[in-house]
Structures are given as structure tokens and as C-alpha cells.
Design goal:
Elements (H helix, E strand, L loop, with lengths): L37 H6 L5 H5 L5 E3 L15 E14 L5 E7 L4 E6 L4 H6 L5 E7 L1 E3 L2 E5 L2 E5 L10 E3 L8 H14 L8 H7 L4 H9 L7 H5 L4 H26 L11 H9 L6 H15 L5 E6 L6 H13 L3 E5 L3 H15 L6 E4 L5 H12 L5 E4 L13 E6 L7 H8 L9 E6 L5 H7 L4 E5 L9 E7 L3 H13 L3 E5 L7 H18 L5 E4 L5 H12 L5 E4 L12 E6 L7 H8 L9 E7 L5 H12 L3 H12 L1 H5 L18 H17 L1 H12 L9
Helix pairs in contact: 6-8, 8-23, 8-24, 9-11, 10-11, 20-21
Bound molecules: adenosine-5'-diphosphate and magnesium ion.
């Protein structure tokens, strides 16, 4: 499968204006292109002559040879030459121009359902016609419908290269694109941007050679290698594209890495106390990532680290350890979470763990009253070491930090690029804070290498010990009674359960209605149980109260919308029912399911679905049913959906790929990653030239 559907044909990050610095004049603008053509080229992402060089053919037609009619394979595009026998307009079964032609080997009928009157006149018996079309053999012998043709007189040399077929747009004919590409090839600088040694080492062809070849391959080329893009010329282009992406992201990484940040050497006195007080020992994976973070924080340059770990792998304690290192050095840390429920839970956990150490933890959220908010703001300005935990409210203008040294964003994929960056911008102007992003949407390594190339990545790859695997069951909605019996059994035994409402995407109001209705119905079904309800529209205080009662075991069955999707941690809850699971995405189901299986008791997640299932829904449910590992689920999700959708690539700020394929071109990606590092170090001039070729003047601004 090629996850290319999500990658647009045009690079999305171009500015509308032409690049300001025109180094080689003719290559840097579309001067000389007719005014009505330029906007059409713009639609294809072509704004300067050099862009045409990278406007590569989709496929090719072979006009380099003539095939005798009798040996032309059926259904394949072939070029033949024949002489006209006769031509007439027929009216049955419908009006059409019918031309009979023959060569030495066979006769052929041409049919034109759409034609101009003068076409009939062109086909003078005895004249030679050269045509390109698919020949089919049926009841009436060999036929070609709407072949492309021209009448030839005298010597008519054959093409000496294959004819490229380009991506194009309405009103822009192939011959026009071909002519423009030809001009671009003649006038643009095609010098190599890869160091010679690298080229030799990778055994890739030169740039000029590769693009000339792809725009005009010789007739004897293996067409298949060209069309499935495995030919070395394609490898060169794909490598260049991946290299451009890596250069772009790595250079912005290096730029940020040079800025100043408060050095926070690991003193460890608070961390040691924390670890001693925890009811569990850290896993080796947790120790490893904490060590990586400690080393980063000790440097006088900003950390830019992504912490990945599956749902339940224990990222929170890592965040706490990082925050403590700021406190140990008399600085402040901020922790932002995407939902109020999750933020509150973090607040409670941080407070419970850190209050005994005398560390101040502060709460900032939208639902907070005016007075506590004002008090919190004032406290922040006092420049005391503390940890502020909250929601988006943390990044509001009115919130100011005087000594922010570390910005932690949990479930970072739930925030936009801007929001993620905004928290860091709360630091005093003289320095940049360290950044720690956390995500429970594990993505395959190749995707991480590509999309997170501007970050250092730490992975928690093992779960805390003692977890019993979650059993997942798929149950059709008509068997609801059985599900109800299970819930009753579980809750009567002192266990707790979640009941997740169907997802209604069209409107919040409907979603709310559904949640309330589900809650009522469930309460009637289980008169003997305390049933709670939590949804996104509850006032924060109410939400917090319901969650607290659930956590305390006061509520045994919690009806919830997907607000509980991320982060919620109630280890005693061992059963989850998800209604209309077929409407939910893979990542969402995996996250929801991760709310159970957090303690030692065996847990069950029941996915209820309505029949009939669409093929995609069936495929998705099968994956969650069969797979417990978040990385594996993400890999399969990638296969189903493509990388763009998986990561919300459109807003990720990462340059998209037109030619390379993250599935097929892993080896190239790895090489590009290393090459980018080396070029930025040793050949900055070539690196700049390479970026300019691929991204024009935008290269510098692709990623802040
Ligand atoms: P996530 O990575 O999904 O954010 P959490 O940090 O919420 O995971 O941790 C999930 C649960 O596992 C919490 O109850 C947490 O206290 C517990 N936990 C974390 N680390 C360990 C460990 N090393 N051993 C046992 N339990 C742990
Ligand atoms: Mg978490």
C-alpha cells in the first residue's frame, strides 16, 4: 500500500510571492511563461522555473518505435503506422467516424465517437497515419477507439526518448507542460547539491543525470522500474526529497539547540526522596528516559524532547522527575494537559507526591474562579520555585511566569503546533525553557524519524510489571443483555466500570443529549448501583467531583463520553464497555481501552458495535481486538489511513513528501537522516543549496 493519498502533489508550504533572493535569474522566476499559463502552473505548485525540474512524470508513452499491427498486444498502448483504406461517418449504433486502415500485417478499424467534420477529410484513402492507442480484437477484428493520431508525409522520424506524461490540471495540455519542462531543463542550474563523496558512497546517480533521465528516458529502459519508481534515478530523487526534509528539520533543531536555556544540573535530593516514597520501583525503561532528560536539562541549551510511551507505561512519574529537577535549581516548571479531567488528575497526583517534599504545586484552569486565578497569577510572579499544572489556561496572555525553565506538554498530539510552542514562550525573554512533549500515540519508527526529526525522542518501551493483559471482546449491539449482566457482576463484586457513550460527531449538543439519555437508561437498568455521568459540558467543579467519587469507589459505574479518552487513571476500574465502537478511530479505541488494566486485576474491554459493519470498521475492530501493543496498532493504522491523517500532518509543520514513501523507502530515509547531519556539519553551503532547490525561499521558515 502506498500511503500517498494524504500527500498533496504540491508542496504546501510555498509562499505566494516569488523568492526574494534571485541567485541565477532565469531559474528563479517564471519569466517568459504566458500570463494565462502561470496560474495553472501555480496550481501544481510550480512557481519558479526550477520547480519544473522536479515536476516529474507520472508515467510514459512509447513513441520510439512502430509495432506491426498483427503483433500489437491487446489493451496496451502501442504506436503503429498504417495507410488509410476508407473513412465514413456511420449512424448505427450511434453517430461515429469509422476509419479503416491497414499495414503489411493486418487491418484495423478506428472509431471516433467525438469528431470534427474536417477529420473525415483528413483520412484520404492511401494517406499514412501514425497512431498511438490500445488495440482490441473482437467480433469485427482489430479496433482502436479514439487513438491519438497524425497524418504523416515524407520522412517522419520517431521519437528517440520515451514520452513523459505529467501531472497536470484543467486547461494545461501535456504538450505545453512538456515544452515548459524542456525549457527548464535547458536553462536551469542542475548542479549537484550532494557532496561527491556521499554520492559515491550511496551509489546514486548525479542530480542532472537523474532528472534528465526521468524527463526523457531512452527507449531501452526497463519501464517497470521507472513506473514503480525503483529505478536508481528515482532513488536519487527520493533520497533528495527525504534529505531536504531532514535538512529542514535538523537545521531548525540545531538552530534552537544553540539558544540559551537555564542549566539545571541534576542535584537529585528531591528526586531521591520522591523515589523512596513511591509505592513502586521505576522500570528500567523509566530509569533510562529519566537519565536522558536529566542530562538534557543540565545543559545550558533548551531540551527538545519527545517522550513516547504506550498508554499506561508510566510517563507521569517521568514528568514529575523532570519537574523536580527545575525545582531543585530554584526554577519553575509548567505541565499542560489537553483536558480538564486529565489536568486535574495530574494536579492531584503531583500534589500528593510532592507536598510531602515541600514542593509547591499550583492549579491553573479555565473553570477556576476569578479569585483563585488571580492568586495563582500573583504567586507565579513571585518567582518562587513551583510547578504549575493546568489546561490551555496556562497559555493565556494573562498568565505570566517569571522563572519558567521547563514546559511539559502531556498528550501533545492533542494540541496544535502553536499551542505546544506557546507554553514555552511563557519563559522570560532572556532564555528559552526546556521542552518535554509526551505522547501516548506511539508511532512507527520510520514516521517518528520523519515527522519528529527536529526532536530528540525517548521511548518507554516496557510496561510496569504486574499488569494483567486486558481481554478485548467484540459484541454485536443486539447482545446488549449479556453485556449488562457482565457489568452487573463486575460491579456487585466491588469492581468498577466505565460505560462509554456512542460518539456523535455532528454536534456537541447531540453528544450531550446522548450522554444524558445513556446515563438515564443505564441508571434504570442498574437501580442497585451508583451510576455517575461525566461529559465535556459539565462545569469543571462538577467534573472533578464525579471523577473524585469514581476514584474513591463511591461511584461504581461511570457513564462517560470520550472526555475520559486520555490519561484518566483509576486502577480499580477493570471493565469498560464502549458503545458504537465501530464509529471510533483506532488510536481512540486504544486510548479508551487503556483506562482499564491499570491495576493487578484482570480487565475486560467490551466493544459493542452495530451491524452491518463497513469494511473499514471491520478492519479497525479486528486490529484492536487482535492487538494490545500501541506501536503495532499505530503501524496498522498507518497502513489503513496513511501518515497524513495519522499525525494530522497538515498542521504538523513538517514538509510533506511527494515522491518518497515512508513505507517503501525506509532505507533511504535512514541514509538521508545521517547525510543531513553530516552536511549541516561539514557542507552548510551545499545544505542551503539543497534546501533552496526543494523548498525555495520558504526553507528557512518551514519550521519555527
Ligand atoms: P501513562 O504513560 O499512560 O501516562 P501513567 O503515568 O498514568 O501512564 O501510569 C499508569 C499507572 O501506572 C499509574 O497508576 C502509575 O502510578 C503506575 N506506574 C507508573 N510507573 C510504575 C512502575 N514502575 N511500577 C508500577 N506502577 C507504575
Ligand atoms: Mg498519561
Amino acid at each position: 500500500m502506498r500511503p500517498k493519498a494524504a500527500s498533496p502533489v504540491t508542496p504546501p508550504h510555498r509562499a505566494a510571492a516569488p523568492p526574494a533572493a534571485a541567485s541565477s535569474a532565469p531559474a528563479e522566476s517564471l519569466a517568459g511563461v504566458p500570463a494565462d499559463i502561470a496560474p495553472k502552473l501555480a496550481k501544481l505548485g510550480i512557481r519558479v522555473w526550477a520547480d519544473l525540474i522536479l515536476h516529474l512524470p507520472l508515467r510514459y508513452e512509447d513513441e520510439t518505435r512502430l509495432v506491426p499491427l498483427a503483433s500489437a498486444p491487446s489493451g496496451e498502448l502501442v504506436q503503429v503506422e498504417a495507410s488509410v483504406l476508407d473513412a465514413e461517418v456511420q449512424y448505427r449504433p450511434r453517430r461515429q467516424l469509422v476509419v479503416r486502415v491497414e499495414d503489411a500485417s493486418e487491418e484495423l478499424t478506428l472509431r471516433f465517437l467525438h469528431f470534427y467534420p474536417n477529420q473525415l477529410k483528413q483520412f484520404v484513402p492511401g494517406s499514412r497515419v501514425r497512431l498511438l492507442g490500445e488495440i482490441r480484437r473482437g467480433m469485427f477484428g482489430a479496433e482502436a477507439i479514439h487513438p491519438r493520431y497524425r497524418i504523416v508525409r515524407g520522412a517522419a522520424p520517431l521519437a528517440d526518448t520515451l514520452t513523459p506524461v505529467y501531472p497536470t490540471t484543467a486547461g494545461l495540455a501535456q504538450p505545453t507542460v512538456r515544452a515548459l519542462v524542456g525549457r527548464a531543463l535547458a536553462q536551469c542550474e542542475l548542479g549537484d547539491t550532494l557532496p561527491q563523496a556521499l554520492l559515491a558512497e550511496l551509489k546514486l546517480p548525479g542530480f542532472a543525470e537523474a532528472v534528465r533521465f526521468l524527463h526523457a528516458p531512452p527507449p531501452d529502459v526497463a519501464l517497470e522500474a521507472l513506473e514503480n519508481r525503483s529505478h536508481p534515478a528515482w532513488a536519487r530523487i527520493k533520497f533528495d526529497e527525504l534529505l531536504a526534509q531532514q535538512l529542514c528539520m535538523r537545521s531548525s533543531y540545531r538552530r534552537r539547540r544553540r539558544r540559551a536555556a537555564p542549566a539545571l544540573p541534576a542535584r537529585g535530593h528531591l528526586l531521591r526522596k520522591l523515589l523512596d516514597s513511591l509505592p513502586f520501583a521505576l522500570t528500567p525503561a523509566q530509569h533510562r528516559v529519566i537519565a536522558q532528560i536529566r542530562a538534557d536539562l543540565a545543559r545550558a541549551h533548551p531540551m527538545q524532547r519527545l517522550l513516547q510511551g504506550d498508554v499506561g507505561s508510566g510517563k507521569t512519574v517521568v514528568a514529575v522527575a523532570a519537574a523536580l529537577q527545575a525545582i531543585e535549581n530554584d526554577w519553575q516548571a509548567a505541565v499542560m494537559a489537553p483536558t480538564e479531567i486529565l489536568a486535574e488528575q495530574h494536579y492531584l497526583k503531583f500534589s500528593a507526591w510532592l507536598a510531602p517534599l515541600g514542593v509547591e504545586v499550583m492549579w491553573i484552569a479555565g473553570g477556576q474562579g476569578k479569585r483563585p486565578r488571580a492568586a495563582a497569577r500573583k504567586r507565579l510572579l513571585e518567582a518562587r520555585p513551583l510547578i504549575a499544572v493546568g489546561t490551555h489556561a496556562l497559555i493565556q496572555e494573562t498568565v505570566e511566569f517569571t522563572r519558567l525553565a521547563l514546559a511539559i506538554v502531556d498528550e501533545q498530539h492533542r494540541f496544535g503546533v502553536r499551542e505546544r510552542l506557546a507554553l514555552g514562550e511563557k519563559a522570560p525573554a532572556s532564555s528559552e525553557p526546556h521542552r518535554l512533549m509526551m505522547s501516548a500515540t506511539p508511532i512507527p519508527r520510520t514516521l517518528a524519524m520523519s515527522f519528529y526529526a527536529d526532536l530528540d525522542v525517548s521511548v518507554i518501551d516496557t510496561m510496569p510489571p504486574g499488569r494483567t493483559p486486558i481481554t478485548t471482546k467484540l459484541v454485536a449491539a443486539r447482545r446488549r443483555e449479556e453485556v449488562i449482566a457482565r457489568v452487573r457482576d463486575a460491579c456487585m463484586d466491588g469492581g468498577q466500570a466505565y460505560w462509554v457513550c456512542p460518539l456523535i460527531e455532528e454536534s456537541d449538543a447531540l453528544q450531550l443529549q446522548t450522554a444524558i439519555a445513556t446515563h438515564e437508561a443505564i441508571q434504570q437498568t442498574f437501580p442497585e448501583l451508583t451510576v455517575g455521568l461525566v461529559h465535556g459540558r459539565l462545569a469543571p467543579a462538577e467534573k472533578a467531583e464525579v471523577m473524585a467519587r469514581f476514584k474513591d469507589g463511591d461511584i461504581s459505574l461511570l457513564v462517560a463520553t470520550t472526555v475520559i479518552e486520555v490519561g484518566v487513571d483509576v486502577p480499580n476500574a477493570t471493565l469498560m464497555v464502549i458503545e458504537n465502537a465501530e464509529r471510533m478511530g483506532l488510536a481512540q479505541l486504544h486510548q479508551l481501552r487503556g483506562r482499564v488494566g491499570r491495576g493487578r486485576a484482570a480487565s475486560i474491554c467490551i466493544l459493542m458495535y452495530e451491524t452491518p459493519l463497513s469494511q473499514l470498521a471491520r478492519a479497525r475492530l479486528k486490529i484492536v481486538y487482535e492487538t494490545a501493543d500501541g506501536f503495532e496498532i499505530a503501524r496498522k493504522d498507518l497502513e489503513l489511513r496513511g501518515p497524513g491523517e495519522l499525525l494530522g500532518a497538515r498542521q504538523s509543520g513538517v514538509p510533506m513528501l511527494r515522491f518518497a514513501d515512508l513505507d517503501a523507502d525506509i532505507a533511504l530515509l535512514e541514509k538521508a537522516r545521517l547525510a543531513a547531519e553530516r552536511m549541516l556539519e561539514l557542507e552548510p553551503g551545499l545544505a542551503r543549496a539543497h534546501l533552496a532547490r526543494w523548498f525555495g525561499a520558504q526553507a528557512e521558515f518551514l519550521k519555527a
